[in-house]
Amino acid sequence: MAGQQMESRPWQQTMVRKTNNQEEQFNPDKIRRSVQNAGANQQLADEITQQIQGSTHSGMTTTEIDNSVQEVLKQKDMDAYNNWMRWKEQHQKMQ
Questions:
Q1: Which of 19, 28, 61, 94 is deepest in the core (most CB within 10 A)?
Q2: Does the global pTM surpass 0.85?
Q3: Cβ atoms of residues 24 and 61 within 8 Å
Q4: What's one Pfam family here (predicted)?
Q5: SS3 of 25, please?
């Protein structure tokens, strides 16, 4: 594969549906940032981001993405998982 140009990744054209039914382009940086804000280290944030990128598809909802992130955090970093869930709970109260 050396010397071949990298093809664009499918996630780069993937549109996800937000909870308000609007669609936006999938942005892996949002996942990475959110996971790090929850307290996960850079390596785990990158791992989760890559895993989600590999499983995204057009029409996927942000809720599905959120659930996937939660599952990995729960398995790999309980402190970050608990922080993620606390933030989610507070965010839902404000809506």
A1: 28
A2: no
A3: no
A4: ATP-cone
A5: strand
Tens digits of residue pLDDT in 12-42: 678 999 989 999 999 999 999 999 999 999 9
Q: How far apart are CA 95 and CA 79, in angstroms?
A: 25
Q: Give 56's DSSP letter.
A: -
Express each pLDDT in 42-82 by its tens digit: 999 999 999 999 988 888 999 999 999 999 999 999 999 99
Report in angstroms the alpha-carbon separations of 78 from 6, 55, 64. Answer: 36, 23, 20
* Burial per residue of 72-91, b for 16 or more beta-carbon CB atoms within 10 angstroms, e otherwise: bbeeebeebbebbeeeeeee
Write out the H or E segment, with its range, that includes residue 92: helix 78-94
User: How far lies 22's CA from each of 57, 62, 81, in Å?
Assistant: 16, 10, 27
**Is 51 exposed, middle or buried (CB count within 10 Å of its CB: 0-12, 13-18, 19+)?**
middle
